[in-house]
Structures are given as structure tokens and as C-alpha cells.
Amino acid sequence: MQKLIVIVILISFSFLGACNLFDGRKADERVARVGNKYLYRSDLQGIVASGTSPADSVFIIKRYIDNWVRQQVNLAQAEKNLTADLADFNRKVENYKNSLIVFSYENEYINANLDTVITPELMAEYYEKHQDEFKLRDHIVQVKYVKLPLDAPEINTVRRLVRSDSEQDLIALEEYCINHAASYFLDTESWFVFSDILRDMPINPQNTESFLRNNSFLERTDDFYRYFLNIIDYRLEGSASPIVFQSDNIKAIILNHRKQQLISEFRNDLFKNAASNGSIEIY
């Protein structure tokens, strides 16, 4: 069979025999050829790490050249059999490369110029205009929750403190929980997914919506613990989400809008500058 691809590998002994592998040789000296593709001596710069022994250097370089040759043989065969679609393929590759270059540069520009400061006022303004976009996917609650060992002292006092609205009683309850509770959370400004709380309690309501509407205080026990739950407020699945529950989403949306605007202005400015300095000609 006539050879379709001619492969020539030229490696001199002086090239392989010393640590200073590239001294005194032309930078563009050909090392290997596959068809009309050449591997040059300069392409091998940096392949061998400093301090590598001569024997290891020879092995590394030979392996690199062999891999290059095999890759070029495969590429040549693929190009031969993709002739009909090669122009379109090359165009796609070129478009992808161009897109990647532009994307990387625009990312650097965004990182250097994007205003990332988002004030609470701006978040509140966005939330008010787009409340319909922030619907709850779960029931959420504001609660006081205390989980105590069965032998914990002063249960009647705890029961009263959990139900109380007094700030002083909340402080007293926290001091008690620090010393006696197995777990608790008393941050009445924060929102929690109700199903997360239920997983820690011996409660399994058949209808969660009805349960929330009809219960504000619960006390339950199991074999090891006593549980207190004061439901201060709740929002049902499908209703408008509180702004504090959506703060991360709102920040991300605002930042994304700023990115899009920044890139749009950047691209327009580039085009205007190119047009004004004569870089663009359309025939």
C-alpha cells in the first residue's frame, strides 16, 4: 500500500546526550515531521525540568516527540476523512476560540470594573418591584424552639419563658438554655423552613398548612427529650417570600443586571472607538 503519510524524525545524538540540550543549535531546527506538519526544537523548550538527569531527559523528550507524532498522524487521517465538513468544522473551532478569548477578556474587565456594593435600600426597592418573582417553595416560620433532656429543671419556668413576648424573658431563657438545653434557637427575627424543625421533633402533621394556622405553641415529649415550640409568625408555601429570606438571590440578580449593562456599554464603546479611529471599513 502506498504510504499516505510520511513520517520523518530527526534526533541527533548531541541533542539527546547532555543536560544543555539546546545550546548552540538554531531555534527553528526541525525535530520531527508528519506530512507537512513540523515539530521544532523551540517547541521542546520547558519540556524537561531543571535538574533532570541526562537519561531521564532523553526519555522525556523521546516520549514527547512520539506523542506528538502519533497525534499528528491521527489528526492527518481525521482531516483527510473530514474533507467535506472540514471548512465548517474549522469555522466552528475558530468561532469557539474567538468566543473563549473574548469571554476571558470581558471577565477580567468585569472583575476590575463591576460595582459590587448593594445597599439594603436598593435590595428593598428591587424586592418591592418584583415580589411576584419571589414565591416560597416551602412553609417557613419564625420560632422559639427549645429541646431539653427529660430531667432538665424548672420546666414550668421554661414553659412560661418560651411563651413570653418579653425581651427580658428571652434573655433569661437563653441563659437557661446555655446551661441545660440539648439544642435551641431563639432568634425570633430569622426565618426557618418548617420541615427542618419538624425533623427534630416528634411531630408529623397530616396537613402542615392547617397545623400552622391552628397552632402557636406546642409541647411534646419522647423517650429522651421534652420539646417546646412557640410559632411567632409563618408564611405558607406559594406566598410572597420575606426579603431577608431572598437576600442572596436578590444580590445575585442585581449583580447580574450590572454585569450585563457593563458588558453592553463596554462593547458599544469598543465599537464606537474602532469606528471613529478608522479601524472599521465595510465594503
Summarize the structure.
By secondary structure, the protein is of the alpha+beta class. The protein has three domains: 7-85, no CATH class; 120-130 and 242-273, no CATH class; 136-235, Roll (Chitinase A, domain 3). The chain has helices at 13-16, 54-81, 83-113, 120-129, 155-163, 167-180, 194-198, 208-214, 247-276, and strands at 7-9, 30-34, 37-40, 140-149, 183-185, 192-193, 217-221, 225-235.
Task: Count up the domains.
Answer: 3
The CATH architecture designation of the largest domain is: Roll
Round the Cα radius of gyration to an integer and report it: 35 Å
Number of strands: 8
Structural class: alpha+beta
Key descriptive features of the protein:
single chain, alpha+beta, 49% helix, Chitinase A, domain 3, 283 residues, 9 helices
Description:
This protein is an alpha+beta fold and 283 residues long. The protein has three domains: 7-85, no CATH class; 120-130 and 242-273, no CATH class; 136-235, Chitinase A, domain 3. The protein contains nine helices and eight strands. It has helices at residues 13-16, 54-81, 83-113, 120-129, 155-163, 167-180, 194-198, 208-214, 247-276; strands spanning 7-9, 30-34, 37-40, 140-149, 183-185, 192-193, 217-221, 225-235. The strands form two sheets. Strands 4, 5, 6, 7 and 8 form a five-stranded antiparallel beta sheet that branches. A hairpin with a 3-residue loop joins strand 7 and strand 8 (225-235). 11% of the residues are buried.
Secondary structure topology:
Elements lengths: L6 E3 L3 H4 L13 E5 L2 E4 L13 H28 L1 H31 L6 H10 L10 E10 L5 H9 L3 H14 L2 E3 L6 E2 H5 L9 H7 L2 E5 L3 E11 L11 H30 L7
